[in-house]
Specification:
It is a multi-pass membrane protein. The protein is an alpha+beta fold. It is built from 35 helices and twelve strands. The longest helix is centred in the middle third of the chain and has 32 residues.
């Protein structure tokens, strides 16, 4: 309960605090003019950009002091260049992901573990030193608290900041006191090296926060914003404290709004204030982080997710305390760099659209008009919009590591750079796109998927997001139009200003062109999305396989040809599956060489992941649960499969009097049972189809785990038929081999006419069981019956209760709904059957219900079942 409350607090508190800050600062935000702001950004001189970039990189470089101190304390044999590299990656990720410090701590643990054998010592030092990284801000907080620097104007309207500043100011003394008491309680004292490390970390923290404030001041100075360092430092400290206590990653929103409000209190316009904050975020956070991404991509190539999880699992206890106060889930570390790459692709698309919706630099447009033709500039503008929309669409595929999307995205980034440059010499956007293209190229090893499924939910989200972005594109251009019309010379106004109607048309044309280009491009890869090679259903190969390996009660359903076959790399293990939604559903357990089952399951997982699909195993046996558990699956008990021991089955004795009575009754009335072997005559097949159609009563056939009427399929195995005294076919059942060397037998279809007397199916069952016993079979499988108590317990998980409802009212069974009553009649035994799934149980059950609800037979060659070669 306590853990749950902490988690809720971590989520709710930042949202509420950000909402409060926004409500207080919304008046200032509403005064912003997008046109002025965008013109300022596009009018920046290269020297100004270079100056701000240099200062930001130098400031971030100072944070490497943390790593130098920790590495020296641990005496790790890490080359100096590696120390700088590890420090840069850890600190830039920590800057963007949050002030909490867990991102940097986790990455340091990942990097240093290769040089430190004592992992417990390594983690304890990292956990011990990470809280010290906030002590520099704690020292600076004393400046406004004691009045050395003044934030009186800000406190007059936001008095709560004084209490926040006081709390952060007391952080360092509180940390030192608590640490001292904790060590004294354990009877431990700090060594000289310990003290040097603590003092050094506090000094490094102070340098970090001072350099961050100097970066902000330098940006203000370069942009000619009239504010002194003393006033800016006071505002910076207040804003940084607001960001730290908000628990929002990077202090985004809370820091910026306090700074925006503070700037305006000193007479600085909201446009200029926001311009300073944008460039501060860009050169102190975003660009250093992108550099960190490049460095991280080279560092992580040889390291896998599995290694990372294994390492942290060994030191989990050492991290429990830190995790309890951190908002950063460590699992994100393993994929955050790729997520960031996808976000940058999306940002690139957004940048192209905003660039197209906003004016270029006036001087550049005049030069462009002289060098390039107006039609070429207009075409480049339209193609720039198209490229932006394509990148927005492709960002999801980049996130899911789809290889064809990588190739197309790389081409569109290069093209987008060319188009945005040729429409008005916007070299800044072009260089940014080329840089992102370089990042994408460096990350090409990450892309391995052939495709990724498009679900209804994902499609809805993408369409909604695209509509929002295109609306923003039109809105930005529309709001700028009156402002630009007043300032742009009439002779180039047609090149410079887009009317609202033109914005709408360009967005629609861009959307259509983007969709067409993606469709054409993906057409070249269409064949790759079809399951080929080891998944082709080769009936002859299956037949040969079943002569050498045992099957199970579901194996014969592969001959329905509504499923595909998966062979492991040795060809010794076979699974039958079908795609449904975003899952590949395997029917039953793998069959073949038992010693290769686990590796085959892992191969299938990799195969499914190649297409962005989840893997699900339906109706698996209890004996193989450990295999699925070891490969990451959860379980849901579907029901129990009934089977009869034919060695003890008999109609004699007092207990079986009712069964004998049924059999005797039908024999007296002239009913005749017959086991017919294939090939069947056309007239018999027509009789069977007539009975089947009547039994269905207008309902659709099912499939996958349930057989359906198909003449080719029925011709494969013997058929049990029951006729009345007049020779009319009243009921039939198709026999299904189990492929276990004649040990077992089962049934598939069991159908009867609507006018059959009570007990007809009992008579058919009894006759089949007697026939199987006489032929020397040991076991007879009656099929699976759902459990009545699945998901009914008050302690069942909600997902299990929902899944149980879907299972109960879905399409999972129809011919075995009354099967449980045969348990006592035929002295049946029961074995549990399970569903192995990886996530979202209710959705998995829903997909299964849809999968089974309709047959999907595929045309194929004539097939011959091994049973035809000699049924007992």
């Amino acid at each position: 309960m306590k853990t749950l409350m902490i988690r809720i607090f971590k989520i709710v508190f930042p949202i509420l605090l950000l909402l409060v800050i926004y409500m207080e600062g919304k008046k200032e935000i509403h005064t912003l003019r997008a046109g002025d702001l965008l013109l300022h950004i596009k009018s920046m001189m290269p020297s100004q950009i270079a100056g701000m970039l240099s200062i930001g990189i130098f400031a971030i470089g100072s944070m490497v002091l943390y790593d130098l101190l920790i590495i020296r304390y641990l005496n790790l044999p890490i080359p100096f260049a590696k120390q700088v590299k590890f420090g840069w990656i850890s600190n830039t990720f920590n800057n963007v992901i949050g002030f909490g410090g867990f991102a940097g701590a986790s990455l340091r643990g990942l990097f240093y573990k290769r040089y430190e054998k004592d992992l417990s010592r390594l983690i304890s030092v990292i956990v011990w030193t990470t809280p010290l990284m906030l002590t520099g801000l704690s020292l600076l907080a004393w400046l406004p608290v004691t009045g050395i620097v003044s934030i009186k104007p800000l406190l007059e309207t936001h008095s709560w900041l004084f209490f926040a500043l006081s709390a952060i100011a007391l952080y360092l003394p509180g940390y030192l006191i608590i640490s001292r008491l904790s060590l004294a309680k354990k009877g431990v004292s700090l060594s000289k090296n310990d003290i040097i490390l603590v003092v050094g970390m506090i000094g490094a923290s102070l340098i970090e926060w001072l350099f961050a404030s100097l970066t902000l001041f330098s940006v203000s100075y370069i942009l000619k914003i009239p504010i002194s360092y003393e006033h800016l430092l006071a505002l910076f400290i207040a804003a940084a404290v607001a960001g730290a206590i908000s628990l929002i990653p990077g202090g985004v929103g809370s820091f910026d709004l306090i700074m925006l409000i503070g700037f305006q209190l000193y007479g600085i316009s909201s446009e200029n204030a926001l311009l300073v904050l944008i460039f501060y975020r860009l050169f102190y956070y975003i660009i250093p982080w992108i550099i960190g991404l490049v460095l991280a991509s080279t560092e992580f190539v040889s390291q896998t997710k599995k290694i990372m999880f294994t390492t942290f699992a060994k030191t989990k206890k050492s991290l429990l305390w830190w995790e309890s106060i951190s908002v950063f889930p460590k699992s994100i570390l393993y994929n955050v760099s790729h997520w960031a790459l996808a976000a940058l692709i999306f940002l690139s698309g957004l940048l192209l659209l905003l660039s197209a919706a906003t004016p270029g630099i006036l001087e550049r447009l005049k030069v462009a008009e002289n060098l390039l033709s107006s039609p070429l500039m207009n075409l480049s503008h339209q193609l720039s919009v198209t490229s932006g929309i394509i990148l927005l669409i492709l960002a999801r595929s980049i996130l899911h590591r789809v290889k064809p999307a990588y190739k197309l995205t790389f081409a569109v980034l290069i093209a987008g750079a060319v188009f945005t440059f040729s429409k008005g010499f916007d070299y800044e956007e072009a260089l940014f796109l080329l840089f992102i293209a370089m990042l994408l190229k460096l990350s090409q090893h990450r892309f391995y998927r052939v495709s990724y499924p498009i679900t209804v939910t994902s499609m809805f989200v993408e369409i909604l997001l695209l509509i929002i972005v295109l609306t923003l594109y039109i809105l930005v251009g529309f709001l700028n139009e009156p402002f630009l019309t007043l300032k742009v010379p009439a002779e180039i106004r047609d090149l410079f200003v887009l009317q609202p109607k033109e914005l709408l048309i360009s967005s629609l044309i861009g959307l259509v062109l983007a969709i067409l280009l993606i469709i054409i491009s993906y057409g070249f890869y269409k064949q790759r999305t079809i399951f080929q090679g080891k998944t082709i259903l080769d009936i002859k190969q299956v037949e040969a396989f079943l002569k050498n390996y045992n099957g199970n009660a579901l194996t014969h359903l592969i001959f329905l040809k509504d499923k595909q076959a998966f062979w492991n790399k040795t060809g010794h293990v076979l699974m039958m599956y079908r795609k449904m939604g975003d899952s590949l559903v395997v029917l039953g357990d793998p069959i073949g060489e038992p010693g290769e089952f686990r590796s085959a399951i892992e191969e299938f997982q990799l195969f499914a992941d190649q297409y962005g699909l989840a893997s699900v195993f339906y109706q698996i046996d209890k004996n193989n649960l450990s295999l699925y558990h070891e490969t990451g699956y959860d379980f849901f008990k579907l029901g129990e499969e009934a089977y009869v021991d034919l060695n003890v089955f008999s109609l004699s004795g007092k207990k079986n009097a009712s069964l004998r009575a049924v059999k005797n009754k039908f024999e007296r009335e002239g009913f005749q049972f017959e086991m017919v072997s294939p090939p069947f005559s056309t007239s018999l097949l027509e009789e069977l189809e007539h009975v089947s159609t009547e039994w269905l009563g207008g309902k659709k056939e099912k499939g996958f785990s349930l057989g359906f009427f198909d003449r080719d399929y029925i011709q494969l195995t013997p058929l049990a038929v029951l006729r009345d005294s007049e020779g009319q076919l009243k009921a039939f059942a198709t026999i299904m081999p189990v492929y276990d060397n004649g040990e077992s037998l089962s049934i598939d279809l069991m159908r009867h006419t609507s006018d059959t007397p009570n007990g007809t199916m009992d008579m058919l069952f009894l006759s089949i069981l007697q026939h199987a016993r006489d032929k020397g079979y040991r076991w007879f499988y009656l099929g699976m019956a759902p459990l009545s108590n699945v998901g009914q317990s008050r302690y069942s998980f909600v997902s299990e209760k929902i899944a149980a409802l879907i299972y109960k009212h879905g399409n999972f069974v129809y011919q075995f709904k009354g099967i449980r009553k045969y348990k006592e009649k035929f002295r049946g035994r029961w074995e549990p059957k399970y569903l192995a799934y990886r996530n979202n149980l209710p959705m998995t059950m829903l997909q299964l219900s849809l999968l089974i609800s309709k047959k999907r037979a595929k045309p194929g060659k004539e097939i011959v079942s091994p049973m035809q070669n000699g049924e007992k």
